[in-house]
Amino acid sequence: xxxxxxxxxxxxxxxxxxxxxxxxxxxxxxxxxxxxxxxxxxxxxxxxxxxxxxxxxxxxxxxxxxxxxxxxxxxxxxxxxxxxxxxxxxxxxxxxxxxxxxxxxxxxxxxxxxxxxxxxxxxxxxxxxxxxxxxxxxxxxxxxxxxxxxxxxxxxxxxxxxxxxxxxxxxxxxxxxxxxxxxxxxxxxxxxxxxxxxxxxxxxxxxxxxxxxxxxxxxxxxxxxxxxxxxxxxxxxxxxxxxxxxxxxxxxxxxxxxxxxxxxxxxxxxxxxxxxxxxxxxxxxxxxxxxxx
Length: 293
Hints:
Blueprint lengths: L1 H27 L2 H4 L4 E7 L1 H11 L2 H5 L2 E7 L3 H9 L5 E6 H11 L4 E8 L3 E3 L14 E5 L2 H13 L4 E2 L13 E3 L5 E5 L4 H4 L5 E4 L1 H6 L4 H4 L2 E2 L10 E6 L7 H11 L1 H11 L4 E2 L4 H4 L6
Parallel strand pairs: 1-2, 1-3, 6-9, 6-10
Antiparallel strand pairs: 3-12, 4-12, 4-13, 5-10, 5-11, 7-8
């Protein structure tokens, strides 16, 4: 009996020890217990932006930050924002501040910008004219068929001297109906953003965002007739990282801005994209009208 009792006691002690070991293992895998767990972050993006985030995901800096970054390619801005809103991705990287404002208003959503990244200049392109001064009367101008980029294109046309807009022009939702002066009687056509490089030969002028221009083999600094510069008038066009309101203070997502702006990432961007993504490190409050300076 004593021998049997001793065997049973030994088995019981082994089971208890095993249970404690499992509990210890589970605890070590929890960031709340040890702070050592790698956090998975899914980023929705497209085109050259997705390429940049894949570079960041593979970097030593991401590993040091204990982030497992996974990049999900999504075709289209609305679709990418919808995926963020619905929780299919944690954060997205593709859009300007004006595009975000427009999306939230049109979709009655509440997505939040958590960091700035860069200004990617929009350009005016043409195969028919070699300068803005050469644009002829009645030329057809192709603009992106979404509110933010339509308004952005019109602002660029005004900056080039081709048109004038209302004094209270809405930078996120303005339309061709807000043109107050059109001395060259330009005609406007709305097109799908992604078709910009393909329609150059069919119209007088086409306005193309730089991500799409790059995909079409165009460098905005070299190939456009006129392009945006960083200024107060273009701050609505600064790109941002975007997430949902319940995640905007997530510590893991907050680390993404530092990863984007680190030296290695910026060198990669400069080498890969010919200087067409101009770094911006302003706080989000700057875009909301509260200058950080």
